[in-house]
Specification:
homotetramer, alpha/beta, Helicase, Ruva Protein, domain 3, four-stranded parallel sheet, 6 strands
């Protein structure tokens, strides 16, 4: 395989990228200065060396030079965060979004979601690690921040069961009309949820 | 103006219809059998004669031949509905959608929404009629079923104030993740609402 | 069926209209003034009486009161048009679009397109009428203005055969890059056509 | 800047990639095996070493190990191609698309397009190189394969002037209905072109 085809094939595995756009990426790099290519190559290669997975929440974070021995991310290390709240999410990208909402507690990244048909939930998410974290830290409240999808609901139910024995209160995100949505176009299930959660 | 242009102009006022689609409607009617045109014309003309506005909820409903003197719609006339609940909506189409969610109470149609800049809320919605209905029926709970938009929020606030003196409990629809939405793509305000309404 | 459901069902047959939008049309009419409903009903009903199908090109056109005996449309009646050119189109709406391009000749509306599987082309288009028109008027050139689709190509081929015996030159619209399109995103067939038609 | 932010910023410069997708790429790489990251880094870095710009058409091509001294791409080196035809394109990606159309001649990549406001066309495209190529090879026909956009038309006009003195015939791609387009939705300029190029 030519280096052009090989790099195209690698880009095709990137999330949301098809053959045509993968090829455009390669064209972009072909025309780019060798220095830029070197910079990108170095950034990709050293991503592992300069980042680490947080020992507490399991998200990936940049290891600062000055504190290269750090084993926890900035949020987990921040003593000003509300340590009684644990927000459980599916993946790293969810955290970025939740941070924008003004949430001030801690996180735990499941690293996946449990498929409906799965017999072994442990294979898809960090269940053991979550139970260990809960046992060690004893948060007052665990917020199950799963997506409002069928698989998200399924994962939430299994987690709720598994966490039943913990001393933490287990809560779920509110369901209802999302900001900007109109009643006329809301689906019946969302309206039913919005009615059930009226206040 | 030619009859073709005139009918096009009338169709252009239909919700969501632009000049091109209005013209396609006219083409469709031109090619259609005269009998179909007659049927449509008759259905449009007699819409008023065969429908009436409900004296209680103000929605439009078909008047049955057998009970042509009926002044209330099927929902308002149905004694099996929960008469302690009053769901206040912006427009008739909202009711169709709320019915699909399994709601079993009564309704009131505001007939509009209050623009942010308006000095006279009464000009845009049936405020006087709502207050009269509440005073007469004294529902245990009034659910303000406005859309989750800026104007919807604005209208809800004004209604909440105006209904303060009533003996009814005034509630709002729950806000949060709508069914099917993913945490990663939810907007920060929706996440903040979902967090605030966690349970 | 209620008058609301009945009118909804009629609107659902309009081109491009689904159940939800059909219902919104009815709501719009319900809330509208009875006078507007009457105006629409009258415009729909009288569409047939105030329009006629052109005896030459078969398009639908408004019959002017003063000249209610007119049997040809404004274009066919206009002696300033180039009468040596005959532009054959599938449907009335195509003419509106071709007029905007500055074309100054005459038209003929086929009233349809020939499906690939059809054994009887005459059932789908005004073939006999076209041949008669060509024989009578003997245009110098017949432009087959079909869409650049598989069915359009199929219809063009059949028409070209049927018109072989006429004394008119039979031509087709140029194929190639449409205005605004980029080479990178053009499909191979369009590029092949653009290459074949280079000048 | 953290390595995560740095790599995100580099991905944001990729064609068609916004901040959110750039971040997803980084997440994908963070979770990926270090070996895959190494493979991508190596492929990006070595792209320059394993590819070269063709001395004849200026496209980028993979240099085969066996013939590492090759200075022309596979098409330019292929003696079976029609060497009398020169297809001038804006960028490498256009060639992939033209190849799919069955074209069998040679190419020249301009490396850009001339902006409408530009005073110095030479700054944007390989004009000197094109003139030199034409003088050396004396193709029978030069096909100006620019996009059907305003800038493409502008570039074509300037090239046509500059090539006037050459002995080659200078042609342009055919304009008209692109494959699959319908007459009803074609823009007036495309119809005018299709009419002008009828055959």
């Amino acid at each position: 395989m030519s280096p052009i085809d090989k790099l195209s094939a690698l880009f095709e595995k990137f999330p949301g990228i098809g053959p045509r756009q993968a090829r455009r990426f390669v064209q972009y790099l072909l025309v780019a200065a060798p220095a830029l290519r070197g910079e990108i190559a170095e950034a990709v290669r050293s991503l592992g060396a300069q980042t680490a997975q947080c020992k507490k929440c399991y998200r990936w974070f940049p290891t600062e030079d000055s504190a290269s021995t750090a084993s926890t991310c900035a949020v987990c290390a921040n003593t000003a965060r509300e340590r009684t709240l644990l927000f459980v999410v599916e993946k790293d990208a969810d955290i970025d979004n939740v941070e924008r909402s003004g949430y001030k507690g801690l996180y735990f990244v499941l690293g996946g979601i449990i498929p409906l048909a799965s017999e072994e939930p442990e294979k898809h998410i960090r269940l053991r690690e979550l139970l260990k974290r809960v046992e060690a830290d004893k948060p007052v409240e665990i917020i199950l921040g799963l997506s409002a999808t069928t698989e998200g609901d399924h994962t939430r139910q299994i987690l709720a069961e598994k966490l039943q024995k913990s001393t933490s209160k287990v809560s779920s995100l509110g369901r209802g009309l999302s900001t900007g949505s109109e009643l006329e176009y809301a689906d019946p299930d969302t309206i039913a949820q919005a009615l059930g959660n009226r206040h």
